[in-house]
Amino acid sequence: MQAITDSRDIRDAGNYNLSVKIPEVDKMIDQIKAEPDAAKRADMWSQIDHMVIDQAVVMPSVASKALYMRGKGLTNLFISDSQQMYDYVGVGVQQ
Question: What is the pTM of this model?
Answer without folding.
Answer: 0.51
